Amino acid sequence: MSSGSGNGRLYLLKKGRNGLLHSIFSRLGLVLLLLLLQIALLITGFNWFAGYLPHVFGGQILLLLIMLLYLVNCHMDVNAKITWLVVIALAPVGGTLLLLFTRADPGHRALHRRLDYIHRVSRHDLPQDPAVSAKLEQSSPEVYGLSRYLWQTGDYPVYLHSQTRYFASGQENFAALITALESARQFVFMEYFIINEGQMWGQILDILARKAKDGVEVRVLYDGTNEFYRLPADYPRRLAALHIQCQVFAPLQPLVSTHYNYRDHRKIVVVDGEVAFTGGFNLADEYINRVVRYGYWKDTGIMVRGEAVQSFTLMFLQMWHLPDRPGRGAAEGSLQHYICPHPASFPDSGFIIPYGDCPLDDYEAGKRVYLHLLNQARSYVHIMTPYLILDEEMENALKYAAARGVEVSLILPGIPDKIIPFALAKTHYKRLLAAGVRIYEYTPGFIHAKVMVSDSCKAVVGTINFDYRSLYHHFECAALLFNDPAVEQAEADFIASRGDSREVTLANRLDKSRGLLVLGYLMKVIAPLL
Length: 530
Fold this sequence. Notes:
alpha/beta; single chain; globular; Endonuclease, Chain A
């Protein structure tokens, strides 16, 4: 272990990424492994059971018919059903085992019970202010209806007296984050999908270590996928040596757990219950362009002050206490302690609803909010997203909005970080463009922003991509804004980013991408598994 230096950057680890391990233990790796096992069984079967091949093939056909009936009648997204049908048709035995393993969900039964327990313990910690709710209903019955949905499905209140600041780049976000961390007096909570050592994390870690030494309570929570190619398994112990509490969400246990399917994709920072951050921004050097990987890395985020910070505090604590066993009371009484009873008030602010999305329920809050804004839009919907892997419902909502005369525009990466999602996005272009949706590719590089702006009054800024992972399988979070100054800031950022982008048309959509389109159509059959 090496540590802090005169340049103010603390490093606990120097190691390269192990791309081989990541590939082996990824979702795609698991699918390919089962397909290879199926092929191996077939080859072995030809040799061992040459005299029983009609019985073997007959058994596989019978199994395929049984699984077909099962899939048609089970509760599952139609795109996922098609994917499973293709997988089982190609590999009846391996595909069936994978489906049953996933449906049995052995890695999440206990997690689901713990989540229910945490919600029962904390659901009354943040009551809805009736006066704020009534004012929202008077201002916009439509947004009020959406707020009722978020309250009923996740106990997420609507706030009025909070202040927001929108960030159009990772660099802006990072500068404000450093200032907020330096001001910490009581506690710092950080929850991230990715933490990678370098200049950025080293500078943050230096501040966290100093604050922890001075008595500030510091907690760091990161997703278990970091353990394979970013951080070692003993990293929490290394942070503990700096008096920093650290937990890993769902450490990966390949082939014995379905935890690989539900990741903590949230990005949350809370300082003293007074200021909070969320957005696409992770803790790695490429997010602030100190390392160039895919051209210029364009990201966005939001900072919140005032009452709305309480929801981000509670979301973090709920995730932090997920390992607690129900009935042991580890979380009871500990959540309210961190909820600021008299946060600063900003009377000239708009409405804000911080909310989370959980893959263990059937509410699909992230998707429903996006669909609501699309279906209720009157003038325009502007979207920035790094990935475009849509189910039929989301694609139809985009096309229907455009058909109603709403200007629907999307900005996607010009330089992708992953080739398969980029290829899958191309498969949607023709239908969307034909319906009147406008698509732009950000020419300076990779756009990682997750932003939707509608009608100059509504916006969503958070961690939720337009893909299956975010909309169905990840823990996510965002802030819904109405008549808030950050809406105008997000729209100005979209307009500026569109000026740096190339518009895709039906005529030029295949320029230099015919191979990508073929790849996209091939991978589309297993898109919900990726």
